């Protein structure tokens, strides 16, 4: 079912109304939404127990300090909540959540997964400068201020959701679309203005947006590819890396309890450092920071949803998110694996395909 | 064990180093016998070495034969196992005399031709071959040439080059280039005599020489034998795996296979057993590689008679044209194309052109050359096998296995080899084993490196090596440990003197050395993982022409291994002290037979049977084709089992569930309302199978006068069939169809036995056998011929056009489409006999709360159908007899003996060492994501909800490490190859690169 909802309201107000209806009809007992943090001008996800606090929520604030998928994992990983939690996610957050469901880090059993179209986000600092008592919207920022990963993102809308809140192609209010049986059931209880039988203008709008982003991505990544070519390119690209592993901490699909790169395998003995120094004459410290990035790429490249949280977390502004986007989109396309596409796709690391890649010099069978 | 024997006290001579011989030697060695493996050719492996892929998985897997003494020691390749203590290999040796000694012992005299090479000194540098000017036909690759200085195939055993004395011109070029002076062209033949407590004849077969098949065009270049095609398709073959016509090197587009070339004819009246399947496999391999090639098979019967055989044929060869006829003639045109003349089933004659014709040739016995030495008779050139056995001969201490006793295929040969080991164990007794490795390996070790130098001029710079390692705090020594026992004690002294607790040994190919060394250090109280064997001759010496580079590489590799060892430390579980008891589930023939053999070697057995009395399906069997009477055999066997103090026979008892692991299984049994618990070191499933019950009206089932083949056999033996005037037998009832896509293996032989018995009792009775393919493989073919001679009619039918049975005017009428007449014929019959197949008895078995897995047909699934025929996925679980698939009674007994041999390896151990090539889970790190569960190819990992962590079932884990590479956080890891060790090895090797080499 697809329908227009509250066409006289702006998307923020319409979405608040929608959640209010969900609370009133007792369809949900709590909701995880972007909200103003402690009356400040920061927007973080917050759990609400009733419609009373909806005034403090800003579902379309164009900022993402962290991926809500990780917070959803915290809520559901060890045991399902007893009552339904509605959660509002961006497309990249939903896609990360899908990967985490497959990796058993999120359970959707008592979750109503609501996604929203996303035109892009800005860095938290950029957002903070603009924010005052009024929380700025997407149109308050220039294109240059939008994070490059968002400008390259080919997913303005989420592939997996119970209900999607559409803004692309909406002339007023929001477009509610049920994408699962659960979603259909919920929408029956919601007062839609009208059903939307013709979705062609929404589709056209999404297509136009995607094409624009793809074009930007191709141009941007082609340049980046040249820049990081060869080991020298890579060394230069990561020159400022301080091996702090912030990128990993913020990555929504890096789900390990303890990262391999923090493990004892990398606790080397003193004589090793001496040996390496003897060998090379000069030993740049810290060691293994490039191995760390390559290892992480190897581990989660096929689950990377290109949200760019890594890049946003980097204290030295290394464009690590863009590099991951370059590698992961190429690898995912090559293997026809698309992170976050479906809950039933197999996990790439546990899937064996005899013919996926050939050895160097080997002919494709 | 009942008979007190010492390790390697009893000596068994195995004649023939092909698949069966190797399997027997390894199985016997595992049971503590001293084994001498005698091979006539320069290197081991016989015909099997020439077939580099086998169905049903189109891979080799020969290494699966390896010893399983230490559970999970998967790093030992088969070549290394052949170097085990107590296993001697004599190549180029021919038996010429056998003498009888006291106490049924035999003395065997051999002549060993010289190899003209001192094996210890050969470094496999191949220089002798490069300079050798002599070229002779290559008996391994068949279509190519080899030198007089040669090795039969790469990585051959023994791992040396040899000089072919017959063709060598003694030009001496090889002597000049040999870097280690290992060639001695003056070497003389040697006399060997061995006293044996038992002998296993595994002499295999000669490939039938098709030269006499002139009508099939053997003289034409593009008519090749199936073995030649096998070599052509092999990546290591004369054309590196490219299909090329011998005449012009072009790629054939139309290929014909002629089955039964040289089999089932006047010269070789028997069926060669293995050819249908290996021919079909070749057609499949060819079709896979060259999908555009048009394939035609001319055949007589499709003898895919084993469990997976028929479905392999059916599933994989849909694009092949099967023509049921033997071509009359093959001619050649001016372009070397071949014109095949044949008659199709409807009687029409055809001439068809092919680019390549493959004659699928069979097996010829060799026993006429030597059987008389053992005072044994032969049968069609094969050793005569005693009635009621598959491997026994007239001499109770001599067994003939594999194709020595009749044409055989590979799985049967391997089963027989292991069965021979089981039979010999119960005849001669077996010793207990000692030696269990310590359970943990402590950190902060002292590491040593030993190099085995070859001669004085082997290119190793000893001083440079000593200095290099001394700087790293690693002690080095140069010891010829492979030369006699002296080297080994020198090595032992080195370890003691320097107080080492890790050792890298760098030497030649590890065949002989690795296991020997690991056994030796275990005597010092070491864990085998504390010694690393580094084969640095082949990869290093061959790899570098320049001596300085060679030294560099040797240093780096040895250091990498030393560092791997330095970082090695682990705690494994306590060694398991196995229960001294075997549990056998099912007291049919296989279960009873196994119980008796266990009892013979002093192992206690609990034998459970769900019905009231033991005997199973065998109780219903009548006299076999060969004249074996199952009833008295079974009666005697049951009597012995009941009398044995070692065997606890529990009837009316079922298996409820199993817990534990190899050595310490706990079986929960149910006897009526009562629950019984038995501990067992191993479990053998001999749960049997059932006769297929046809559906009502299927081939007239339910009509009066329609009877199953087995019941009919019973009537014949009671003389109740003497009045019958006509009998029609219908084959493949409940076999080779969608529901049961396998051949039931016993029914055609039973039909032949019934038909012959009817005809012999009353020559006037009309007997017609309606069959799809008559499955009388091997020497059974002789009975097919006999039946034909006695006037039994055979009509072929296809699956999609089966005969129908009805009752009209008080008579049974069978209608069948006869292809020869191209019409439906009606036969009236006094009795219609249905060859009801064999179907699995479904009984779910719970092991540690998980069901034991069965194959797609519902039978027990062997872990490797070819090379580990009785072992199941769980270590310590075995299956034999009908439980594993359709089988004749004697085959079930053979399989039971094979399972006993494999099980005794564990039962004779005082303690079972825990696996150390095994995956573990670090519970704290495990994020419970389940990647490892999906990645594990053996289902050895489970999610433990209580621990919130994955867990390894060690009994199933094969230590392959796939989980460790799939797990991003290294929560899944391998016990003796941790990531810090791997990283360190890489680091050491990178250092060489960084130095600018």
Quick recap of the structure?
The complex is a heterodimer of chains A (365) and B (997). Chain A has helices at residues 11-24, 68-76, 91-102, 124-130, 148-151, 181-187, 200-227, 230-237, 246-250, 270-280, 289-300, 309-313, 320-335; strands at residues 2-5, 30-36, 43-48, 85-89, 111-116, 163-166, 174-178, 194-195.
Could you describe the 3D structure shown?
Chain A is an alpha/beta fold and 365 residues long. Chain A folds into 2 domains: 2-215, no CATH class; 220-350, no CATH class. Chain A has helices spanning 11-24, 68-76, 91-102, 124-130, 148-151, 181-187, 200-227, 230-237, 246-250, 270-280, 289-300, 309-313, 320-335, and strands at residues 2-5, 30-36, 43-48, 85-89, 111-116, 163-166, 174-178, 194-195. Chain A has an 8-stranded mixed beta sheet, with helices on both faces. In chain A, α3 (91-102) links the parallel β4 and β5. Chain B has 997 residues and is of the alpha/beta class. In chain B, 24% of the residues lie in helices and 24% in strands. A 5-stranded parallel beta sheet of chain B has the order 3-2-1-11-24, covered by helices on one side. Chain B has a 5-stranded parallel beta sheet with strand order 13-20-14-15-16. A 5-stranded parallel beta sheet of chain B has the order 33-32-31-37-50. In chain B, α17 (747-761) packs parallel to α18. The longest helix of chain B has 20 residues, at 547-566. The interface between A and B is medium-sized, with 24 and 26 residues.
């Amino acid at each position: 079912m697809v329908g227009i909802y509250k066409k006289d309201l702006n998307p923020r107000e319409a979405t608040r109304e929608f959640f209010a209806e969900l609370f009133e009809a007792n369809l949900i007992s709590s909701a995880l939404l972007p909200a103003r943090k402690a009356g400040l001008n920061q927007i973080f996800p917050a759990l609400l127990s009733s419609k009373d606090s909806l005034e403090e929520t800003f579902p379309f604030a164009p900022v993402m300090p962290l991926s809500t998928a990780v917070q959803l994992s915290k809520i559901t990983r060890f045991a399902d909540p007893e009552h339904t939690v509605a959660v509002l996610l961006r497309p990249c957050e939903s896609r990360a959540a899908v990967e985490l469901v497959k990796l058993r880090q999120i359970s959707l059993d008592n979750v109503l997964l609501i996604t929203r179209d996303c035109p892009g986000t800005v860095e938290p600092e950029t957002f903070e400068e603009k924010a005052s008592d009024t929380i700025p919207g997407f149109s308050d920022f220039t294109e240059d201020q939008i994070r490059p990963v968002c400008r390259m993102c080919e997913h303005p809308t989420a592939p997996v959701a119970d209900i999607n809140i559409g803004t692309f192609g909406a002339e007023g209010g929001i477009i509610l679309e049920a994408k699962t049986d659960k979603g259909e059931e919920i929408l029956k209880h919601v007062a839609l203005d009208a059903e939307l039988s013709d979705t062609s203008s929404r589709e056209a709008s999404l297509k136009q947006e995607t094409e624009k982003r793809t074009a930007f991505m191709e141009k941007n990544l082609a340049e980046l590819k040249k820049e990081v070519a060869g080991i020298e390119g890579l060394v230069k690209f990561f020159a400022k890396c301080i091996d702090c592993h912030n990128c990993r901490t913020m990555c929504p699909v890096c789900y390990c309890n303890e990262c391999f790169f923090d493990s004892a395998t990398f606790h080397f003995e003193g004589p090793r450092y001496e040996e390496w120094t003897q060998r090379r004459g000069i030993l740049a410290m810290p060691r293994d920071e490039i191995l760390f990035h390559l290892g992480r790429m190897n581990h989660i490249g096929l689950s990377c949803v290109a949200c760019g949280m890594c890049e946003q977390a980097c204290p030295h502004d290394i464009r690590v998110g863009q590099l991951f986007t370059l590698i992961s989109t190429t690898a995912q396309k090559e293997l026809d694996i698309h992170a976050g596409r479906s809950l039933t796709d197999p996990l790439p690391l546990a899937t064996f395909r005899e013919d996926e890649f050939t050895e160097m010099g080997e002919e494709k069978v | 064990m009942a008979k007190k024997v010492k390790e390697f006290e009893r000596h068994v001579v195995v004649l023939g180093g092909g698949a069966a011989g190797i399997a027997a030697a390894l199985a016997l060695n595992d049971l503590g016998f001293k084994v001498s493996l005698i091979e006539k050719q320069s290197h081991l492996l016989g015909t099997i070495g020439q077939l580099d892929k086998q169905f049903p998985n189109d891979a080799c897997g020969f290494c699966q034969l390896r010893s399983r003494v230490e559970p999970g020691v998967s790093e030992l390749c088969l070549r290394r196992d052949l170097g085990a203590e107590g296993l001697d290999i004599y190549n180029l040796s021919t038996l010429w005399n056998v003498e009888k000694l006291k106490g049924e012992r035999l003395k065997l005299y051999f002549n060993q031709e010289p190899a003209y090479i001192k094996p210890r000194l050969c470094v496999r540098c191949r220089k002798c071959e490069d300079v050798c000017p002599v070229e002779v036909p290559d008996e391994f690759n068949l279509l190519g040439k080899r030198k007089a200085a040669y090795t039969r195939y790469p990585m051959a055993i023994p791992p040396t080059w040899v000089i072919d004395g017959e063709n060598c011109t003694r030009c001496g070029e090889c002597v000049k280039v040999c870097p280690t002076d290992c060639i001695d062209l003056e070497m003389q033949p040697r006399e060997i005599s061995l006293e044996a407590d038992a002998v296993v004849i595994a002499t295999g077969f000669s490939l039938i020489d098709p030269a006499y098949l002139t009508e099939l065009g053997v003289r034409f270049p593009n008519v090749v034998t199936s073995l030649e095609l096998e070599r052509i398709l092999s990546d290591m073959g004369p054309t590196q795996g490219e299909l090329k016509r011998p005449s012009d090197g072009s790629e054939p587009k139309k290929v014909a296979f002629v089955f039964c070339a040289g089999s089932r004819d006047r010269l070789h009246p028997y069926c060669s057993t293995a050819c249908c399947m290996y021919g079909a496999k070749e057609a499949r391999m060819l079709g896979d590689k060259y999908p555009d090639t048009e394939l035609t098979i001319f055949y007589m019967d499709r003898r895919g008679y084993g469990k997976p055989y028929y479905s392999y044929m059916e599933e994989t060869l849909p694009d092949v044209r099967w023509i049921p006829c033997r071509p009359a003639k093959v001619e050649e045109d001016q372009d070397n194309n071949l014109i095949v003349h044949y008659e199709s089933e409807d009687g029409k004659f055809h001439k068809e052109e092919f680019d390549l014709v493959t004659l699928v040739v069979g097996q010829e016995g060799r026993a006429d050359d030597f059987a008389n030495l053992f005072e044994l008779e032969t049968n069609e050139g094969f050793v005569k096998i005693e009635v009621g056995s598959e491997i026994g001969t007239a001499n109770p201490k001599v067994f003939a296995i594999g194709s020595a006793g009749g044409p055989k295929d590979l799985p049967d040969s391997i089963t027989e080899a292991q069965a021979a080991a089981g039979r010999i164990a119960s005849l001669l007794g077996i010793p207990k084993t000692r030696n269990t490795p310590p359970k943990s390996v402590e950190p902060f070790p002292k590491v040593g490196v030993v190099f085995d130098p070859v001669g004085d001029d082997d290119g190793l710079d000893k001083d440079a090596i000593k200095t290099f390692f001394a700087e790293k705090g690693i002690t080095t020594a140069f010891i010829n440990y492979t030369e006699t026992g002296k080297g080994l004690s020198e090595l032992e002294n080195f370890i003691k003197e320097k107080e080492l607790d890790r050792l890298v040994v760098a030497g030649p190919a590890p065949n002989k050395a690795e296991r020997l060394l690991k056994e030796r250090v275990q005597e010092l109280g070491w864990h085998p993982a504390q010694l690393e064997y580094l084969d640095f001759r082949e990869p290093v010496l061959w790899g570098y022409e320049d001596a300085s580079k060679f030294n560099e590489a040797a240093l780096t590799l040895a250091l990498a291994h030393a560092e791997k060892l330095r970082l090695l430390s682990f705690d494994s579980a306590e060694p398991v002290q196995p229960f001294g008891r075997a549990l056998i589930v099912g007291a049919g023939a296989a279960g009873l037979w196994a119980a008796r053999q266990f009892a013979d070697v002093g192992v206690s057995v609990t034998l459970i049977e769900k019905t009231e009395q033991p005997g199973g399906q065998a109780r219903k069997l009548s006299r076999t084709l060969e004249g074996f009477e199952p009833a008295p055999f079974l009666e005697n066997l049951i009597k012995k089992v009941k009398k044995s103090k070692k065997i606890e026979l529990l009837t009316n008892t079922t298996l409820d569930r199993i817990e534990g692991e190899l050595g310490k299984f706990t079986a929960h049994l149910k006897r009526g309302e009562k629950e019984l618990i038995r501990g067992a070191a191993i479990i053998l499933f001999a749960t049997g199978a059932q006769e297929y019950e046809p559906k009502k009206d299927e081939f007239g089932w339910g009509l009066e006068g329609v009877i199953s083949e087995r019941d009919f056999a019973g009537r014949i033996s009671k003389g109740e069939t003497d009045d019958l005037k006509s009998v029609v037998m219908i084959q493949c009832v409940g076999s080779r169809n969608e529901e049961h896509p396998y051949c039931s293996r016993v029914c055609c032989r039973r039909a032949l036995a019934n038909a012959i018995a009817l005809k012999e009792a009353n020559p006037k009775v009309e007997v017609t056998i309606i069959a799809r393919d008559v499955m009388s493989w091997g020497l059974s073919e002789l009975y097919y011929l006999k039946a034909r001679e006695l006037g039994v009619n055979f009509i072929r039918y296809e699956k999609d056009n089966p005969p129908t049975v009805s009752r009209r005017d008080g008579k049974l009428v069978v209608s069948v489409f006869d292809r020869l007449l191209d019409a439906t014929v009606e036969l009236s019959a006094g009795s219609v006999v249905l060859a009801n197949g064999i179907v699995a008895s479904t009984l779910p078995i719970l092991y540690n709360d998980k069901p034991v897995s069965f194959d797609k047909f519902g039978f027990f699934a062997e872990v490797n159908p070819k090379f580990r025929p009785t072992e199941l996925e769980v270590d310590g679980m075995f299956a034999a007899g009908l439980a594993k698939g359709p089988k004749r009674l004697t085959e079930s007994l053979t399989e039971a003996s094979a399972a006993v041999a494999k099980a005794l390896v564990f039962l004779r151990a005082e303690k079972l060492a825990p696996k150390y090539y095994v995956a573990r889970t670090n519970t704290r790190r495990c994020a419970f994501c389940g990647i490892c569960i999906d990645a594990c190819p053996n289902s050895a990992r489970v999610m433990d909800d209580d621990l919130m962590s994955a867990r390894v079932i060690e009994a199933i884990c094969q230590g392959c490490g796939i989980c460790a590479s799939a797990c991003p956080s290294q929560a899944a890891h391998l016990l003796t190859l941790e990531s810090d060790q791997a990283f360190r090895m890489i680091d050491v090797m990178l250092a060489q690169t960084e130095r600018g080499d």
